[in-house]
C-alpha cells in the first residue's frame, strides 16, 4: 500500500471506532481499529506518525461526539454554519492528542517490535489520561469505556480504573499488530490478559449491606426548548408533584434541574407537600434544582447546580463541583462564543470537591450531577463511604443522539470501579438502575414520561481502585515506558 493512502485509512479506522461504544457496543471494534492504527505507525517517522494519529482522532471524534452540534445549535441557538464549524474545530483540536501520542512514541522508539508491544499502548493510554484533565478535561470516548460492562477487560476496572482498562485494551491492540512479527508471544499475552480479566469478573470486592430498598426514578421528559419557559413552569411543577405523590418508594429521585426555579423562588408549601409525602413513608426525596446563595467577592449573584433532599432525614444537599465549559461557566476569553448562544444559567459557582455522601433512606448516597461522572477519580472520595451511587442528569441537551447512551456506559464504568449499585435519573433518558457489575437491572425508554420503579442493594467495602485511584495506572505506564526505552537501546 502506498504511504499516502495511510492517512485516509487511519481516518476510516477512527470513524469505525465509536461503533465499539454505546449504543452499538461492539467492544472488540476499538481494539481492532487501534491495532490497525498501530500497524500503520509501526515504522513511521514523527511527522508521519502525528498525521496518522490526528487523522484517526478526527474520524473518531467527528462521528463519536458530533452530538455537540445538537447542544450548541438546536438548543444553544448558535447559527447553523457557526455551530458546524465549532464542532469541526473542536473535534480537530482534541484529535491533536492522538497525533501527539503517536509522534511522541515515534520520537522515542524506532524499533517496530518495541514500539508496538510496549511504547504505543503506554503513550496512548497516557495521552487519554491527559485528555481527562487538561483544559478541565474531556474524557469522552476513552478506550476503556468501550469495554464496560461486558468485555473481560472490564474485570480490571475495580483494580486500575478506566484508564487502566484503556492501557490493557491498547496493549491488546499492540499484540494484535505484532502478530505478523511475533505470533506465539502475542497470542500467549492476549490469552493471559483476557483470561485474567474474566477471572477478576468473578470476584466481588465489596459486600452487600442491609436489605434492598425500593426506589423510584422520575423521568419528566421536559423538552429542552420548553424547560425554562415561564408558560411551562406550572405544568412542570404539577407533573413532578403528581409523580412524587403517586410513588410509594422509600427513595424518590428527580433529575438535574427538574424544578427550573431557584430554591428561594419555589413556593414553600410545594416543597412541604413533597416532603410530607416522603416522610409519611419513612423515606426521602432527592430533587435537582438551581440554588442561589448570596453574592461572590465581586458582588455578582452566586448560584449552584444542586440536588437537595426532603423527607424523613434532615435536609441535605450536593452542589455540583466539576462544571461544564460554556454550559455552566465561561472559559476565559470565550465570552464572545457564549454570546452567540442562548443557554440559560451560564455561570454557576463550584461546590466543594470533598462533599460527603448524603444519608438518606437508610443508605449513604454518593451523588453527582450529569457530566461529573465522567471523572472517575474525582468520585472516589464520596464513594468510599457510600453504599449507593446516584447520578442526576439532563441529557436533553443532546437530543436523540448517541450521547445519552454513551453517558450510561460511562456510568457503568463508575459502578465497576467502585463495585456499587447506581441510580441514574435523567430528564429525557437514559434513566436506569445499574448493579455493582455495571449491568442494567431496569431501564426506562428515552423520550417517554414516567417513573422507573425498582430496588437497589447497598454495598460497603473498598475496591483497589478506591484505595489508590489512578496511581497504579500511572506506575504501570511508567514501567512500560522504561522497559521500552531499555529494549530500544539494546536493539
What features would you describe in this structure?
The protein has 491 residues and is α/β, with parallel strands linked by helices. The chain has 2 domains: 3-204 and 469-490, no CATH class; 207-462, Carbon-nitrogen hydrolase (Nitrilase/N-carbamoyl-D-aminoacid amidohydrolase, 4-Layer Sandwich), CATH 3.60.110. The protein is 46% helix and 16% strand. The chain has helices at residues 6-16, 28-40, 46-64, 68-74, 80-94, 96-108, 112-131, 157-177, 183-201, 224-227, 230-246, 268-280, 335-339, 376-384, 403-418, 464-468, 471-490; strands at residues 207-208, 213-219, 251-253, 284-295, 301-311, 317-319, 358-360, 363-369, 388-393, 421-426, 431-434, 440-444, 450-456, 459-460. The protein has a 6-stranded mixed sheet with strand order 6-5-4-3-2-13. The protein has a 6-stranded mixed sheet with strand order 7-8-9-10-11-12, with helices on one face. The protein has a two-stranded antiparallel sheet with strand order 1-14. A hairpin with a 5-residue loop joins β4 (284-295) and β5. α2 crosses α8 (157-177) and α8 runs parallel beside α17. The longest helix has 21 residues, at 157-177.
Amino acid at each position: 500500500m502506498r504511504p499516502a493512502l495511510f492517512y485516509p485509512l487511519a481516518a476510516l479506522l477512527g470513524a469505525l471506532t465509536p461503533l465499539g461504544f454505546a449504543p452499538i457496543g461492539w467492544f472488540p471494534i476499538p481494539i481492532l481499529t487501534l491495532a490497525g492504527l498501530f500497524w500503520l505507525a509501526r515504522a513511521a517517522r514523527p511527522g508521519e506518525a502525528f498525521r496518522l494519529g490526528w487523522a484517526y482522532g478526527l474520524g473518531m471524534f467527528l462521528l463519536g461526539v458530533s452530538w455537540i452540534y445538537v447542544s450548541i445549535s438546536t438548543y444553544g441557538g448558535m447559527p447553523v454554519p457557526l455551530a458546524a464549524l465549532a464542532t469541526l474545530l473542536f473535534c480537530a483540536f482534541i484529535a491533536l492528542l492522538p497525533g501527539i501520542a503517536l509522534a511522541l512514541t515515534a520520537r522515542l522508539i524506532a524499533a517496530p517490535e518495541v514500539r508496538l508491544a510496549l511504547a504505543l499502548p503506554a503513550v496512548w493510554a497516557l495521552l487519554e489520561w491527559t485528555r481527562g484533565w487538561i483544559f478541565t478535561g474531556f474524557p469522552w470516548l476513552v478506550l476503556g469505556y468501550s469495554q464496560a460492562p461486558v468485555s473481560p477487560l472490564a474485570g480490571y476496572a475495580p483494580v486500575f480504573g478506566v484508564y487502566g482498562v484503556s492501557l490493557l485494551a491498547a496493549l491488546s491492540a499492540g499484540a494484535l499488530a505484532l502478530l505478523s512479527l511475533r505470533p506465539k508471544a502475542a497470542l500467549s499475552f492476549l490469552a493471559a490478559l483476557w483470561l485474567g480479566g474474566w477471572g477478576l469478573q468473578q470476584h466481588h470486592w465489596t459486600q452487600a449491606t442491609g436489605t434492598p430498598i425500593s426506589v423510584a426514578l422520575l423521568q419528566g421528559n421536559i423538552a429542552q426548548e420548553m424547560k425554562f419557559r415561564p408558560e411551562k413552569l406550572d405544568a412542570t411543577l404539577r407533573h413532578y408533584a403528581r409523580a412524587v405523590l403517586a410513588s410509594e418508594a422509600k427513595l424518590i429521585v428527580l433529575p438535574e434541574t427538574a424544578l427550573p426555579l431557584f430554591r428561594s423562588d419555589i413556593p414553600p408549601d410545594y416543597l412541604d407537600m413533597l416532603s410530607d409525602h416522603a416522610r409519611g413513608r419513612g423515606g426521602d426525596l432527592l430533587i435537582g434544582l438551581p440554588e442561589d446563595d448570596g453574592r461572590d467577592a465581586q458582588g455578582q449573584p452566586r448560584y449552584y447546580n444542586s440536588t437537595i433532599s426532603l423527607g424523613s432525614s434532615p435536609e441535605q444537599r450536593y452542589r455540583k463541583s466539576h462544571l461544564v465549559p460554556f454550559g455552566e461557566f465561561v472559559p476565559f476569553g470565550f465570552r464572545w462564543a457564549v454570546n452567540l448562544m442562548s443557554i440559560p444559567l451560564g455561570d454557576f459557582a463550584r461546590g466543594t470537591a470533598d462533599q460527603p455522601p448524603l444519608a438518606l433512606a437508610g443508605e449513604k448516597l454518593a451523588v453527582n450531577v450529569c457530566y461529573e461522572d465522567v471523572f472517575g477519580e474525582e468520585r472516589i472520595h464520596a464513594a468510599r463511604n457510600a453504599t449507593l451511587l446516584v447520578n442526576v442528569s439532563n441529557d436533553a441537551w443532546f437530543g436523540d443522539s448517541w450521547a445519552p447512551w454513551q453517558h450510561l456506559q460511562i456510568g457503568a464504568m463508575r459502578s465497576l470501579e467502585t463495585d456499587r449499585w447506581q441510580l441514574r435519573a435523567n430528564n429525557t433518558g437514559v434513566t436506569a438502575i445499574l448493579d455493582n457489575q455495571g449491568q442494567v437491572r431496569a431501564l426506562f425508554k428515552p423520550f417517554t414520561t414516567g417513573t422507573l420503579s425498582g430496588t437497589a442493594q447497598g454495598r460497603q467495602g473498598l475496591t483497589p481502585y478506591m484505595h489508590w485511584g489512578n496511581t497504579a495506572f500511572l506506575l504501570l505506564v511508567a514501567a512500560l515506558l522504561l522497559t521500552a526505552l531499555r529494549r530500544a537501546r539494546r536493539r
